[in-house]
Amino acid sequence: MPNHTSLTPNSLPPNSLAPNTILLAGASGGIGSALLGELEKEYPQATILTISRRDLATDTGNHSHLTASLADPKSVGKVTEWLRQKPLPNWVINCCGTLHWLSHGQSHGKSHAPEKSLGQCTDDALLQSVATNVLTHLHLAQGFAPLIQRREPLTWVSLSAEVGSIEDNRLGGWYSYRMSKAALNMLVRNLAIEWARKVDHCRVVAVHPGTTDTPLSQPFQENIPAGKLYSPAQTAGRMVSVIRGLREEDHGKLLFWDGTPIPW
Ligand SMILES: NC(=O)c1ccc[n+]([C@@H]2O[C@H](COP(=O)([O-])OP(=O)(O)OC[C@H]3O[C@@H](n4cnc5c(N)ncnc54)[C@H](OP(=O)(O)O)[C@@H]3O)[C@@H](O)[C@H]2O)c1
After folding, report:
1. 216 lines ligand 1 (CB under 6 A)
2. Most-buried pick from 63, 80, 84, 205 (CB within 10 A)?
């Protein structure tokens, strides 16, 4: 049985200290690539480590890149080995996720649109959603875990989605996305509990980035109310503000893009 200890880690310092090293995964996506630009702009002195299935850059200056698919369990060892040669990240941000695979080049068989009803659900779509929305975060955490140190402050951010909130679900539909994001949210909550026992100062959160103009939202943008579709640059700026503003009480929570909590 899980042991119900307190979630709150020992007195956390403010998160406003500039990070020395940032690890960004899913760095080639719409939000991931905008975040890379924002982080480079905001923290020009920081070492930035990126992971993507795409070959983003060669190791130059203070940007180092690992080409890997985090959905693949082999990525766990690859990530650990690579990180052992780098400075320890203070911030880890994982942008990996998928809603559909209609047109933007995913190579896992049939196309998939978010389900409107039970009858449209397929095992394949759910399993693939779990692989991309959950395993990519689990494997990154497993790859990173051997490196964590009690006295090195750590901030972990998984990009999740408001529609993964069970309590907030009033519309239904989007079964595979909702179920897999709800599972991601539970992973983040568990990670928050486990790492609070191992690291003196850590903040582990899931964040909903807001509806952003990227390939993920592209087929569903028609019905978005005016002013509610944000540019990747806008979202990236907000993500950095949320991370910078993380407080002790945010640890182990799902947060909206303005930093307010969303019920699980
Ligand atoms: N856009 C929105 O409106 C919105 C709203 C709510 C939540 N979100 C969440 O925000 C995050 C970023 O979304 P986005 O809009 O930037 O989407 P995107 O442009 O489609 O990027 C998706 C990211 O997920 C990774 N990915 C996709 N399929 C993968 C697979 N099979 N295996 C491993 N990695 C895979 C990609 O990593 P690589 O770098 O390896 O290609 C890419 O960086 C996602 O978690 C999404 O659920 C987005």
Report:
1. yes
2. 205
